Amino acid sequence: MKLQKLYSYTRQAIQDFEMIQDGDKIAIGISGGKDSLALLYALAGLRKFLPVKFEIIAVTADLGFGEFDLTGIEKLCQELEVEYHILKTDIADILKEKIQKGTYCAMCAKLRKGAINNFTKEHDCNKVAYAHNQDDLIETMMLSLLYEGQFFSFAPKMYYKEADLTVIRPMIYIPEADVIGFRNKYNLPCVKNPCPHDGITRREYVKKLVRQIQKENPGAKTKMFNAIMKGKIYEY
């Protein structure tokens, strides 16, 4: 995927769901993976093209699981003229203390989002942008269906009243395969997730399941995505 295609996808989502308004200050959550770095590229570039004026800053939450070399991301942010922050946390220690056996993905996600949200408010941002792509939307629906008995997924845009914060997901229209292509074409400085449970989670199982469904039923992912969007099985 070329940069112009990335801009096109994200601009369409921003317009369709009215994600960005004049005067917004948006914190971009940077995990170190391909998706968040693609989102960084997209919003950094769209500052020049969208008819509204907005600011962006980038933040990575260091959970404390081990070595996490972010120098490549720091350099990229400098090149894109985006202010970058590394948020040190003790989330890994909290998780190890509270959960002795099994995975702790749900609690980790909650603590990580809480840390990012607090950072966002402390830096006078009114929105936070996450890099969930089209495949993430489908996989979240499958996780909800299989493990919670609900047909549900996350929203492209969501306002949280208790935090007075809006979450936006501008990459909602982009298939993961295109993000992989963008990563390879532009040599994104991705950082491996140091979490000891990376790759052995329920989400990873569902990712493989959806991949198999798509292989046996070409076009199935598109149909699932359309079912979610047309059915609006998410909250605003």
Q: What topology does this entry show?
A:
Elements: H1 3-16, E1 25-29, H2 34-46, E2 55-62, H3 71-80, E3 83-88, H4 91-98, H5 105-122, E4 127-129, H6 134-148, E5 157-160, E6 165-168, H7 176-186, H8 202-216, H9 220-231
Parallel strand pairs: 1-2, 1-4, 2-3, 4-6
Antiparallel strand pairs: 5-6
Helix pairs in contact: 1-2, 2-7, 6-8, 6-9
Short description:
With 236 residues, this protein is an alpha/beta fold. The chain contains nine helices and six strands, in the order H-E-H-E-H-E-H-H-E-H-E-E-H-H-H.
Question: Which key terms come to mind for this protein?
Answer:
236 residues, alpha/beta, Rossmann fold, six-stranded mixed beta sheet, 9 helices, 6 strands, 13% strand
Task: Kindly report the CATH topology.
Answer: Rossmann fold
Instruction: Work out the helix count.
Output: 9
Cα gyration radius (Å): 17 Å
Helix fraction, binned, reads 40-55%
Query: Any idea what the shape is?
Result: globular
Total domain count: 1
User: How many strand segments?
Assistant: 6
Biggest pleated-sheet summary: 6 strands, mixed
User: Percent of residues in beta strands?
Assistant: 5-15%
- The level 1 CATH classification is Alpha Beta
Q: How are helices and strands ordered from N to C? A: HEHEHEHHEHEEHHH
Task: Describe the protein.
This protein has 236 residues and is of the alpha/beta class. It has helices at residues 3-16, 34-46, 71-80, 91-98, 105-122, 134-148, 176-186, 202-216, 220-231; strands at residues 25-29, 55-62, 83-88, 127-129, 157-160, 165-168. The protein has one domain (3-231): Rossmann fold. It is built from 9 helices and 6 strands. It has a 6-stranded mixed sheet with strand order 3-2-1-4-6-5, sandwiched between helices. Helix 3 (71-80) links the parallel strand 2 (55-62) and strand 3. Helix 1 packs across helix 2 (34-46) and helix 6 (134-148) packs across helix 9 (220-231). It is globular and about 45 Å long. The relative contact order is 0.18. The model has no long low-confidence stretch (mean pLDDT 89).
